[in-house]
Amino acid sequence: MTGGWLAARGRELGAALGLLTRLPLGRWPMPADAAGFARAAWAYPLVGALAGGVAGGAQALLVGLGLPPALAAPWSLAALLLLTGALHEDGLADMADGFGGGRDRARKLAIMRDSRIGSFGALALLLSLFLRGTALALLPSPLLMMAAAGALSRAALLVPLGLLPPARADGLAAGLGRAGVAPGLAVGAALAFLLLPPGGALSALLAAVLAGLGVALLARRQVGGHTGDVLGGCAVLAECAALTALLLGR
């Protein structure tokens, strides 16, 4: 019984890694049905902690080798983007373009599906990268803090997933469901308190959840639900919010 439970969780972790990173998973077993992929949402914060830890670890390593923190930060962000394939950044740009440039729901959704980037998307990307790069240069413990922020950001994207219906019938997000939302939020919170002092963990958790709620409210008003771009954009914004809270609480 225990072996079967662990095997199922391992398959769900593989599904989360396959969705949120570019890691070559080879023969890692995957869930056999859509319900298994939906349950994999519990593992999103684990993948987020891995991604954030890669960026924070790169920052600590490069600074230890003598690079100034401000120069190490862009290289560390590059490592993060290589690992994730800039999946969430792409979502943020599409969400910003759609919400900023569309006149009605149908037009907003059409813009979000367009692969081209507009001025709203470009500005959102630049601001988010600048904020995270500045935070990386200032964090006193980049490895632990970035890992915690990464976990909380992937937990926060579950807020609009859990609160809103899909904005369109097709697309990846439409099939995610809500089965893994509550466990994912719990895993994200647990990782934050494991990696950070209680005060910092609480402030970062609140900031990330508030960012998730804000994106959910905005998405409901703009397009009536969530999409993959909304979830990806939410992850980036929640990471920015969590890092800001951590630096305010230093």
H-E string: HHHHHHHHHHHH
Helix content: over 70%
User: Terminal Cα separation, in Å?
Assistant: 45 Å
From the alpha carbons, calculate the radius of gyration and give it in angstroms: 17 Å
What percent strand?
Answer: under 5%
Major sheet details: none
Task: Assign the structural class, choosing from mainly alpha, mainly beta, alpha/beta, alpha+beta, or little secondary structure.
Answer: mainly alpha
Number of domains: 1
Mean pLDDT, nearest integer? Answer: 94
Spans where pLDDT lies below 50 across 5 or more residues: none
Total beta strands: 0
Tally of helical runs: 12
Shape: globular
Notable traits:
about 75% helix; transmembrane; about 250 residues; cell membrane; single chain; mainly alpha
Describe this structure in words.
This protein has 250 residues and is an all-alpha fold. The protein has 12 helices and no strands. It has helices at 2-20, 34-39, 44-64, 69-84, 87-101, 105-113, 119-138, 142-156, 158-163, 181-195, 198-223, 228-248. The longest helix has 26 residues, at 198-223. The chain is globular, with a radius of gyration of 17 Å. Joins adenosylcobinamide-GDP and alpha-ribazole to generate adenosylcobalamin (Ado-cobalamin). Also synthesizes adenosylcobalamin 5'-phosphate from adenosylcobinamide-GDP and alpha-ribazole 5'-phosphate.
